[in-house]
Amino acid sequence: MTAEKNKKYNRVLLKLSGEVFKGSQPYGIDPAVVTKIAGDIQKLHAIDTEFGVVIGGGNIFRGVSESAQGMDRTSADHMGMLATVMNSLALQDSLEKLGIQTRVQSAIQMHQIAEPYIRRRAIRHLEKKRVVIFAAGTGNPFFSTDTAAALRASEINAEIILKATKVDGVYDKDPVKDAGARRFESLTYQEVLDRKLGVMDLTAITLCMANKLPIIVFDLNKSGNIYKAVTGHKIGTFIRG
Question: Hey, which of 84, 99, 100, 146 would disulfide with 204, CB 3.0 to 4.6 Å?
């Protein structure tokens, strides 16, 4: 059986944290990490998977932490949005070096480097098998890139959100701090909300629940996991109604 026949999802939204992009560095962008992510996307692009991507900006600037130190929250969030644009351009460059046509669509207009976000245009790019990277969050302060991922996934009719993290799923406690932490194989949206598990912020989870949009939370650092998620292998934690 071919990989095409094994493919479970045709259109997906990949959510990447900005922290993933820094690799082992304290901050910034590690080109080797970005190249690896692009290579993972290339394998799925080869079997005609339609890819939308949302990237955080925490490797460059975290609006929430800066506002906690006295900066105006709106200004801090706008700076965080600009950080996501930098990450988006880095991924676009790596993908296009692999021969994959890519478009960056920004919720904050900056015509010289990115298209404005237009839903119908984004869907048309996906239909033409171009990777679309959605930058600058929702374009509004006080909303996280998790919420942006849930919003864009709903708008483009994605079948699932692939939330790539640094751990292999959702735990009842922090697995880094507590060796006895238990990993969930599956959860409902309501369980995530009731347990306050912090998979995504409450607005993002509520939006996914309202639109019946499933989420897979998995470890990005393990080679081949993006491919496994799209082709229906059991990895990480599966969240649905």
Answer: 146
The per-residue pLDDT for 1 is: 40
**Tokens found for residue 112:** 């010289």
Q: List the beta bridge partners of residue 133.
A: 53, 104
CATH number of the domain to which 103 belongs: 3.40.1160.10
Whether residue 216 has pLDDT greater than 90: yes
Domain range holding 89? Answer: 3-240
- Looking up tokens 């640094």, which residue turns up? 166
Residues 6+ apart with CB under 8 A from 210: none
Q: Would you state the structure tokens that stand for residue 31, as one six-digit string? A: 């080109």
Greater confidence (33 vs 7) lies with 33
Report the alpha-carbon distance of residue 110 to residue 18 in Å, rounded.
Answer: 21
How many Å is the Cα radius of gyration of the chain?
A: 17
User: How many domains does one find in the chain?
Assistant: 1
Question: How far, in Å, CA of 217 to CA of 238, rounded?
Answer: 7
The pLDDT of residue 198 is above 50 = yes
